[in-house]
Amino acid sequence: MYDIPRPLKLVLAKEFILRGSFRFGAEFEWAVELLSSGAIDLSSVILAMLPAERANEAFGLASDRCLTRNVQLAFNG
């Protein structure tokens, strides 16, 4: 068990809900392979793909509640 500092005053004041999550290593690699090979088409889900250098613009698009699809950052290098 890890003792992780938490901003409890902020959690209480803003009524945040804290949830833990568990990352699966093998499933992530499998998903990347499926996406890279084109076996899964996400074009109907992704609104835009922007280079990482335009991250601020991408987050602005993603935070627009009128848009229902996702914005993807492209990391090429």
Automatic annotation (TrEMBL):
It comes from the Bacteria. Gene3D superfamilies: Medium-chain alcohol dehydrogenases, catalytic domain, NAD(P)-binding Rossmann-like Domain. It comes from Roseibium salinum. This is L-idonate 5-dehydrogenase.
